[in-house]
Each structure stands twice: as structure tokens, then as C-alpha cells.
Write a structure and sequence with these properties.
heterodimer, A: mainly alpha, 0% strand, elongated, B: alpha/beta, five-stranded parallel beta sheet, 6 helices, 8 strands, globular
């Protein structure tokens, strides 16, 4: 399993791996928002948590079809299915590798981008906490979507349509944590809900992903 | 340890392609499958490798004993030849990739990125993967595609030494590998053109 993780990370950072794709998209969104809504810093501070969460979510979405599609095309998935790794382990590792290459850079860069959007200073800790707890769910749900659409040529649109509704609860509670934090309110309730969603998806979805993948590689 | 198939039927895209396939291969033996295009060789081999369920019949093989190689080799173009092979060795819990590198003359290419290999060299890398899996039963689907005569001889030698150590090989191929192997023509097992009646399976899958 470690071999698979190392290989996935290595593939992501080598040429054409799309490592910086999500990060670049996140940067573009946060840089363009002040231009489009105007330089009113009070307004920016109000919408900053929502924009940051939406940007992170869309950045995640952008790289989902790479999780399994490339391995499907070159036959790696067939060979992994014959390997001594359980399919559940394979999809979990794939989701984890996606989180490391997409979610983690977003978390690290979020404070910088929050500065661009004039996020109030008390909002930084809850923002990072919410991203840290929320982005793993985005990767795990995304891997499930990728498993559903594997084998469909140009399945990116279908994948987005399937995954977006599943992302809604994470977005609601994640953005709520960041918003309440920025306004100096207590945010423990949405944070617990967010953590619940994340741990629930991590516990259950790999089984669903593995099951649909087994059907899809037939 | 042996690979035995009893009265097996397989389907492709919801249509039965082969039925009543039975054979038995014991250690040290190879079986070569022949048959016209579209007869179901690939489907049969995928069913044996556990990649798709059989319609009916039994496949008896020890669990986790099968190494499968098909048309695509699962090669990552941005990784080097050595990295590609070391990855599969790691996945299958083996560590020594040098015999596999030697058997398919990959040493001079070890540090080259797999994307820069020719089709035949990629195929050799894909076949070298079989050696690092250390599994006794090889299921090979058209393994000699894009190999030159020298590489085919290399491959035949790899099969021979695999059989000599008690391995089993099941090969779908159209060329003569020069192996002492039984040949099974699967054309007589062609299924009658009837759609599968199993509605439950059709509806869900």
C-alpha cells in the first residue's frame, strides 16, 4: 500500500501530473473575486469565508478525474485488481494521495489567499481547521465519483454532476465554521457536523468505491 | 496446485460468448488457447484472472496465485523502467527485480523513462512484471504483440524457466512459441446466440 501511495505522489509531482492545478485554480478564484465585487473591504471580509470554501471545493473537483481515469486507460487498474491489495485499500490510498496533492496545498495556501480577501484576523484558525477537517471528505467522495465514472471517455462532466450534490453538506458546514469564526461567534456545532461527515465518508465510502470499481472493470 | 476449469460459461457485454469450457493444467505445463478473433479468448482469460464473474461453471485455482498480463501493461510513462518494475515488485511483496531485468534485457534501459520506450520495449517491461509478481500461474493474453523474433525467444525462455520451477502458463496466442505445450482450440465452445435470461444481473450490471 505504501508503494502505491509513493507511486501516486511521484506521478503527481512529475511532468503532467497536475500537482499545481488545484492550487493555481484556487489562486485565480481568490485573486479575481476582489476585481469582480469591487474594493469594498467590509464586503470582502463578509464573503471571504464562503469564497475561500467554494474556491477550495472547485479546485478539488478539477482534479478528480485524474484519480482513476489514467490508471484505467493504461491497464493499471486491471493489474491492481489481481494484486494482493484489497480494492478497498487501493481506493483509500488513491483518495489519500489525492488529498495530499490537492487538499493539503490548499490548506497551507489558504491563509495567504484569505489575506487577499481581507478575512478578519480571528477567522484564520477556524478557516484552516474547517479545511483540515473538510477536505478529506472532498477527496474521498471524489474518489467514489471517479470510480462510478471510470471507463467513460471524457467523463469529467458526469463526474462533476454526480459529485457536486454529495459535496453540498461538506460545503455548508465547512463554510459555516469559517463564517462563524470570522464573525467571532462560537463554531463548535458546525465543526462537529463537519467532522462527522468527514469521518463517516472515510469509514464507508471506500467500500462503495471498491464495489463500483469491481463492476466497472469487468 | 493446479488450474482446473469445469464447464465454464462466460459472457461479454451481456451476451454469452463461450460455454462448457473445461480443461486442466498441472504444474510445469503450459496451455495455449487458439481461436478466431472475437471468440472470447480475452473474456475467458479475464474470468480466470477474477476480473469478471463467470456465468456458470467452476474455476479452481489457489487464491492469489494468478498473474495476469493483457494488451495494456500498466506502464507509467513518467516513471523510469526500474521504477515501474520496482513498484509492481513492492505491490506483490517481492524485492528483487534484477532477474526480471536480465530475463528481458532491460538493464540498458533501466533509467530511461518508460514513455521513451518503443512498443516492443514496453511490452518487454510488461512481461518482466510477471517475473516480479512471483506468482505460479501466468495468464497471458496475446503476449507477443509488437515483439520481434529475438524478444519472442526471450519470452519463450522466460516461460520455459517458469514451467521448470513448477509454474503454470495459460497463453492466448496465434504464433508458434516453440513450447512443448498442449493447444486448446476454443472455437467449438462458442455459445449459442441467446441473450442471458438472468434479468437481475442484466438490470443491475
Amino acid at each position: 500500500m505504501k508503494a502505491l501511495l509513493i507511486r501516486d505522489l511521484r506521478l503527481a509531482i512529475r511532468a503532467g501530473g497536475g500537482f499545481g492545478l488545484g492550487l493555481a485554480f484556487f489562486l485565480i478564484v481568490t485573486v479575481l473575486v476582489p476585481f469582480s465585487v469591487g474594493p469594498d473591504s467590509a464586503l470582502l471580509a463578509t464573503i471571504a469565508p464562503g469564497i475561500l470554501w467554494l474556491g477550495a471545493l472547485l479546485a478539488c473537483l478539477l482534479s478528480l478525474d485524474r484519480i482513476l481515469a489514467l490508471d484505467w486507460e493504461d491497464g493499471t487498474l486491471d493489474l491492481l485488481a489481481c494484486a494482493p491489495l484489497p480494492m478497498e485499500g487501493t481506493v483509500s490510498i488513491k483518495a489519500f494521495a489525492h488529498w495530499i496533492t490537492t487538499g493539503l496545498p490548499l490548506i497551507f495556501s489558504a491563509p495567504l489567499f484569505a489575506l487577499l480577501l481581507n478575512l478578519p484576523s480571528q477567522g484564520y484558525a477556524p478557516l484552516i481547521l474547517s479545511l483540515l477537517l473538510g477536505t478529506p471528505a472532498l477527496s474521498v467522495i471524489g474518489t467514489f465519483g471517479a470510480a462510478l465514472t471510470v471507463g467513460i471517455k471524457r467523463g469529467g462532466l458526469l463526474l462533476s454532476l454526480l459529485v457536486l450534490p454529495l459535496y453540498v453538506p461538506t460545503l455548508i458546514f465547512g463554510a459555516e465554521v469559517a463564517r462563524r469564526g470570522a464573525e467571532g461567534l462560537t463554531y463548535s456545532t458546525p465543526l462537529i457536523m463537519l467532522a462527522g461527515i468527514t469521518f463517516g465518508t472515510i469509514a464507508l465510502l471506500p467500500f462503495a468505491s471498491a464495489a463500483v470499481l469491481r463492476v466497472n472493470i469487468r | 496446485m493446479q488450474l482446473s476449469v469445469d464447464n465454464l460459461s462466460v459472457a461479454r457485454g451481456g451476451i454469452a460468448v463461450l460455454e462448457g469450457v473445461s480443461f486442466r493444467v498441472t504444474p510445469g505445463e503450459a496451455l495455449i488457447l487458439r481461436g478466431p478473433n472475437g471468440i472470447g479468448k480475452t473474456t475467458l482469460l479475464r474470468a480466470l484472472a477474477g476480473l469478471q464473474p463467470a456465468l456458470s461453471g467452476d474455476i479452481n485455482a489457489p487464491s492469489e496465485s494468478i498473474a495476469y498480463a493483457a494488451h495494456s501493461d500498466g506502464i507509467k510513462h513518467v516513471l523510469s523502467v526500474r521504477e515501474n518494475l520496482a513498484f509492481w515488485a513492492d505491490v506483490f511483496g517481492t524485492t528483487d527485480i534484477s532477474p526480471a531485468m536480465s530475463a528481458f534485457e532491460l538493464r540498458p534501459l533501466a533509467n530511461r523513462s518508460a514513455g521513451a520506450l518503443s512498443a516492443g520495449q514496453k511490452r518487454r517491461l510488461g512481461l518482466a512484471r510477471l517475473l516480479v509478481t512471483a506468482r505460479p500461474i501466468w495468464i497471458l493474453d496475446e503476449p507477443t504483440v509488437s515483439l520481434d523474433t529475438h524478444a519472442v525467444a526471450m519470452f519463450a525462455n522466460a516461460i520455459r524457466s517458469h514451467l521448470a520451477t513448477g509454474g503454470i502458463a495459460l497463453i492466448a496466442t496465434h504464433i508458434d512459441l516453440g513450447l512443448e505445450a498442449d493447444i486448446l482450440d476454443i472455437a467449438p465452445f462458442k455459445a449459442k446466440p441467446v441473450n442471458i435470461q438472468n434479468d437481475e444481473m442484466e438490470g443491475f450490471l
